[in-house]
Amino acid sequence: MRKTANMVTTIASVVTLLGSLALAPVSTSVASAISEGKKLTFNKKKGNCLACHQIKGGKLAGNMGPPLMGMKRFTKKQLREQIADPAKRNPNTSMPPFGKHKILSDKDIDLIVEFVHTL
């Protein structure tokens, strides 16, 4: 009985350790994606979101678009669709279709979504 209990404890410890090791790279890659997305969002030659939106940490923000805050109320899919082609939801929008017109690559849009979703 004691041998079985020791074995179960050892197995549980190993599983916990392996599980925590498996999560570490994922967290690092998500943090990296968020950081890269922030750079693209603030980059005047790429996303240039600050031209129209107020974003925490951004300087010289515009006010044509709504402030980007509380973005977790949207799914990442919704944010991606809005950035890629905002005219699908609002045909009268002044926001450029960053994906549809290839202003940004799909990868760039995904990185921006990762950042914007944290706001």
Question: Can you offer a commentary on this structure?
Answer:
- This protein is mainly α.
- It has a single domain, classed as Cytochrome c-like domain (Cytochrome Bc1 Complex, Chain D, domain 2, Orthogonal Bundle).
- It contains 3 helices and no strands.
- It has helices at residues 2-42, 76-84, 106-116.
- Helix 1 crosses helix 3.
- The chain is globular, with a radius of gyration of 21 Å.
- It starts with a helix and ends with a helix.
- The model is unreliable at 14-18 and 20-24 (pLDDT under 50).
How is this structure best summarized?
With 119 residues, the protein is mainly alpha-helical.
Strand content: under 5%
Helix content: 40-55%
User: What's the N-to-C terminus distance?
Assistant: 53 Å
Unreliable segments of 5+ consecutive residues: 14-18, 20-24
Q: Spell out the CATH superfamily.
A: Cytochrome c-like domain
Main beta sheet: strand number and arrangement? none
Structural class: mainly alpha
Question: Tally of extended strands?
Answer: 0
Shape: globular
CATH architecture: Orthogonal Bundle
Enumerate how many helices there are, as a single number.
Answer: 3
Topology (SSEs and partners):
Blueprint: H1 2-42, H2 76-84, H3 106-116
Helix pairs in contact: 1-3, 2-3
Key terms:
single chain, 119 residues, 0% strand, Cytochrome Bc1 Complex, Chain D, domain 2, globular, mainly alpha
